[in-house]
Amino acid sequence: MIDYSLTDEQNFLRETVRKFAENEIAPYAQELDREEKFSVEITKKMGEMGFFGAFVSPKYGGQGLDYISYIIMVEEIARVDGSQAATVAAGNSLGIGPIYYFGNEEQKQKWLPRLCKGEILSGFGLTEADAGSDAGGTLTNAVLDERKNEWVINGSKMFITNTSNELSGVVIVQAVTGKSAKGRKELSCFIVPTDAPGFESRKLHDKMMWRASDTSELYFDDCRIPAGNILGNKGEGFKQMLQTLDGGRLSIGSMGLGGAQGAFEKALQYSQERKQFGKPICKNQAIAFKLADMAIEIEAARNLLYKACWLKNNGLPYGKEGSMAKLYCAEVMGRVANQAVQIHGGYGLMKDYDVERFFRDQKLLDIGEGTSEIQRLVISRYIGC
Ligand code: COS
Fold first, then answer.
1. What is the 291 CA–ligand 1 centroid distance (Å)?
2. What is the CB neighbour count within 10 angstroms for residue 28?
3. Going by DSSP bridges, is the β-strand pair 215-226/230-231 parallel, antiparallel, or unpaired?
4. How many angstroms is it from 239 CA to the middle of ligand 1?
5. Distance of CA 163 from the midpoint of ligand 1 (Å)
6. 122-235: what CATH class?
7. Domain coordinates of the chain in residue numbers?
8. Distance from the alpha carbon of residue 294 to the mean position of ligand 1, in angstroms
9. Which of 74, 80, 54, 73 lies closest to 65 in space, CA to CA?
């Protein structure tokens, strides 16, 4: 039996997040984008709403939601603004996720309650200047100083979300800790507090997209953290990171889905109001068919994404479907935002119109958390190529 219905709780959650996003985010989205400003106020409000720690057990201060609910939450924020959705998606999937899934009891007790309340924010330090798609190409290294019982980290990270604002509290960092039995780099992950000595986060400016989210370069200059801050066992870092990305890709998918939905609604409304040749432009088949195609693709994207979340919820393998959903939702938003600008004509090129921002914000989704090319590589491996 196939049941496509959402639960009453999931529908209520969607309504609640939609109302919040429309009232508390939408009125400020354009201005924050223009000023390239991370909003501490909105982030705090999102924390109060319980948007962080969505899938974490209440035992650690989380909401204990299923994965579809979490994805609906990100989707509804992305429907009005990619930047705020990025803060929530990175905070949950990439920052909180590794501590929740791979941390020991002491680490969970120490970090999760504050992270789940949104008192502090977390990031994920994987990408480096020379290690992007090749996630195992990390150069940052960590050496155990046995005398002081501390890890000493040296290196740098690139394009890291959530680490340069006054709420930033912790970042999960992948570093080389030796050589594996197979002769490859041995990689481990560490919980690095943002006030650790030798840690520095420098905000990146002049981004094309997600301009109101916080993106930084990280530097580790003999950065010292307690020996107990290693996540799981030494050498488990690469798999932890890839597993984290599997989950993170679902939230990137939901940003594509939500962004596509938002751009579609803007285009539909505009096409009903804008008159040319004496009638609303949506009465022309050229425009009506574009909108029909957008609606079809959004529906297909939602089904693909929710199916992947359903697999994860049920403890079933979801790597292939997650990659498919990430790739497809990102590309659907690309096509939908492009047509939304087209339907707006000259106005769509102006920053006063939301579709211009959706068009720019989309591009990140083809690149972040595994480019579309990497998704196709992952999918092609799954299907036996
Ligand atoms: N989860 C857990 N383990 C995984 C995994 C996954 N999703 N994918 C691969 N692994 C394991 C493999 O099983 C293998 O384990 P063994 O050594 O025990 O056999 C190990 O990891 C290495 O796998 P593989 O040889 O496939 O690694 P590659 O270096 O070829 O890289 C890709 C695999 C390309 C898939 C990986 O590097 C990747 O996802 N890159 C994109 C990174 C990315 O998204 N960066 C953007 C970050 S933005 S936050």
1. 38
2. 17
3. unpaired
4. 7
5. 25
6. mainly beta
7. 8-120, 122-235, 239-382
8. 33
9. 54
Closest alpha carbon to 168 in 195, 208, 205: 195
pLDDT at 301 exceeding the cut of 90: yes
The rounded mean pLDDT for the chain is 97
246 lines ligand 1 (CB under 6 A): yes
CATH number of this structure's domain 8-120: 1.10.540.10
Is the CB of 372 within 6 Å of ligand 1? no
Ligand 1 in reach of 379 Cβ (< 6 A): no
Please give the class, per CATH, of domain 239-382: mainly alpha
Give the 3-state secondary structure of residue 122. strand
What is the amino acid identity at position 285?
Answer: Q
What are the tens digits of pLDDT across the range 200-231?
A: 999 999 999 999 999 999 999 999 999 999 99
Asked if residue 231 lies in contact with residue 98, where contact means CB atoms within 8 angstroms, the answer is yes
Report the distance separating Cα 63 and Cα 65, nearest Å. Answer: 5
**C-beta of 90 in contact with ligand 1 (< 6 A):** no
Give just the sign of the alpha carbon dihedral 94, 95, 97, 101: positive
* Pocket flag, ligand 1, residue 366 (CB < 6 Å): no
List active site positions.
369
Strand partners, 145: 150
